[in-house]
Write a structure and sequence with these properties.
mainly alpha, two-stranded antiparallel sheet, 11 helices, globular, membrane, metalloprotease
Length: about 290
């Protein structure tokens, strides 16, 4: 091991010097290229194992293994970047203290509550109905969906509101960093499902902006943003998996969500804005500064 360290020390020092002096856009591109480059061999093996061929539509049971393999690599790649740049996860908002659990719970509750309010409004207006007969499908789906939601929400927040936003903020004003990181967050969702994702792009961008506000409201920690993101993913995935909601067709799907995706409709936009407003009021009430 000492021999290996000695051999690779010059290369490590050169990479460290390059990353420290490079423009932020180069650092960001280097991270995403390294992430995707390391994932591609894993993706090929995974695609063979699940018997998926390029050009064919990914089924949900095929998408999850590919998604998990991509996401599980992200913290490892970011850890390498942190070692090379002498930074820590806390620099990107992932603090190792018990307080993050409280923030996580708060954000999760807000995510579920905001969706509950919006869907209650849709029920009242007759835009959708609740399939009570499917409640029996609910209980078995809750634990695995919760685990996936926490994993997806945590890693996406670490990458987009943590690493990406923080790095962009080094060279740009806060609002510019928020806009760019949220735009990248939205556009990268096109990797999985282009037809269903395109109508969601404005909603996904707005969601990214609100999650930046969530980090501000938490004093720079990712706890509330992680919980909020996970709460939205968990609630929507649970409703979809158990097929608890049926849309009546009383109004255009641009109101309820095109292709049954809330973020592709007015209802989802209202949900995100509602959560953002609550977070803004929270930060104002508790006097949290954005200059963390």
């Amino acid at each position: 091991m000492p021999i290996l360290i000695t051999l690779f020390e010059p290369l490590t020092n050169n990479i460290l010097a390059f990353l420290q002096d490079a423009p932020v856009i180069v650092v960001v591109m280097a991270f995403f290229i390294a992430w995707i480059g390391c994932w591609l061999p894993v993706a090929v093996v995974t695609a063979i194992a699940i018997k998926w061929q390029p050009g064919k539509t990914l089924q949900p049971e095929q998408k999850i293994p590919l998604l998990m393999s991509l996401y599980l690599l992200a913290p490892l790649i970011l850890w390498v970047f942190l070692r090379l740049t002498n930074k820590s996860f806390s620099d990107y908002g992932l603090v190792g203290s018990v307080s993050i659990l409280g923030s996580l719970s708060l954000g999760f509750s807000l995510g579920v509550l905001s969706l509950a309010i919006v869907f209650s409004g849709q029920f009242g207006l007759g835009w959708c109905s609740l399939q009570k007969s499917n409640f029996k499908l609910l209980l078995p789906t809750l634990p695995p969906i919760l685990l996936i939601a926490l994993l997806v929400g945590g890693i996406e927040e670490l990458i987009f509101r943590g690493f990406l936003f923080t790095e962009l903020e080094r060279n740009y004003p806060v609002w510019v960093a928020a806009i760019i990181s949220s735009l990248i967050f939205a556009v990268l969702h096109l990797v999985w499902e282009q037809r269903e994702t395109i109508p969601q792009l404005p909603g996904l961008w707005l969601m990214g902006m609100v999650l930046v506000v969530a980090r501000f409201a938490d004093g720079g920690s990712l706890g509330i943003a992680w919980g909020l993101h996970a709460g939205w993913v968990w609630a929507i995935a649970t409703l979809d998996t158990a097929e608890l909601i049926t849309y009546t067709g009383k109004v255009s799907e641009w109101y309820t969500g095109k292709n049954k995706k809330p973020l592709a409709g007015l209802a989802g936009i209202i949900c995100v804005i509602l959560a953002g407003l609550i977070l803004w009021l929270f930060s104002k009430y508790f006097g949290v500064s954005v200059n963390y």
